[in-house]
Amino acid sequence: MPVAAPKPSSWIRVEPAGIFVEPGGFHVDPGRAVGWAVVTHGHGDHARPGHDAVLATPETLAIMRARYRGDAGRRQQPLAYGETVRIGEVDVRLMPAGHVLGSAQVVMDYRGSRVVVSGDYKRRPDPTCRPFEPVPCDVFVTEATFGLPVFRHPPAAGEVAKVLESLTLFPERAHVIGAYALGKAQRMIAELRAAGYAEPIFLHGGLVNLCDLYQRHGVDLGPLVPATGAAKADLQGAVVLAPPSAIADRWSRRLPDPVVAMASGWMRVRQRARQRGVELPLIISDHADWDELLATMADVDAPEVWVTHGREEALVIAAASQGRRARALNLVGREEDDAE
Ligand SMILES: [Zn+2]
Ligand SMILES: [Zn+2]
Questions:
Q1: Ligand in nearest proximity to the CA of 29
Q2: Ligand 2 centre and the CA of 119: distance in Å?
Q3: Are strands 259-263 and 280-282 parallel, antiparallel or unpaired?
Q4: Superfamily of domain 8-150+287-328
Q5: d(CA 171, CA 20)
Q6: Domain 156-282, what fold?
Q7: Which tens digit of pLDDT belongs to each residue from 56-69?
Q8: Which of 67, 193, 246, 279 has the fewest C-beta atoms lying within 10 Å of its C-beta?
Q9: CA–centroid distance, residue 4 to ligand 1 (Å)
Q10: Where are the domains of the chain?
Q11: How far is the CA of 197 from the centre of ligand 2 (A)?
Q12: What is the pTM of this model?
């Protein structure tokens, strides 16, 4: 008789610092500095500075070094997608999550019991990162940023077409697009290139480092030019990318009669677009929408689902209606991914 696999809740639990994997002695995406951290991706609510040791994909470690410099983790252990390493008594594997460059799901096997922590993920094609790969498991830990039926993202190509159309309508005006510095900005550029836009794209200084990093990792973003110091004539009818915080401030008012756009899943909510002074809302998200969340639970076919940051309640109910046990993890320190 085979020995029954241990219940996942007996070896993986939520602590104030985040998800703790007892037989491995490590945390996944801890909200504060710990001894041993496995990190899914480089966004600030998942990758914190100051850990003694960090395990992540080589791309995520590079992003953490770019953001935190000497504070990116005393010891850094890269793990390529699909490779397995044993930490304590737990086999750990990183699989693509399709969220941003280097983003990974953490697959953990312990004595015949498997838990997958998705981190943030999406199922839509993204020219800047490897697509999500479903891994069957006993417990699937899923995000729920857009965990309400009202959130259904349109295809990105249609949103990009709105930018190109506006450029034709307003050839004298700069088109400034607010996009989160890690992931969204590079994806926005790559989607414009995929739609055939070959002109130089101007960058706010806050985006330059991460765009360089993406290009060093083989993501082709085409010709990029710093917006600072560019002649006004060159900015007329040009695409300018900036962090969301810059689109409504003095910085963008220096641009020639700017059309203010913003690329975010939250642009589905008209009121948010208005609050930010956005004239051209672009619904482009790096998070799964409602349909993708439901499809993914079915694809990994986990009998049990734990839901993290976002709108947990609706997804818990939807999981139960698929016949899965589900609960909200209520992690602290996971602020809403507002800009992503
Ligand atoms: Zn993220
Ligand atoms: Zn997140």
A1: 2
A2: 7
A3: parallel
A4: Ribonuclease Z/Hydroxyacylglutathione hydrolase-like (3.60.15.10)
A5: 54
A6: Rossmann fold (3.40.50)
A7: 999 999 999 999 99
A8: 279
A9: 35
A10: 8-150+287-328, 156-282
A11: 30
A12: 0.96
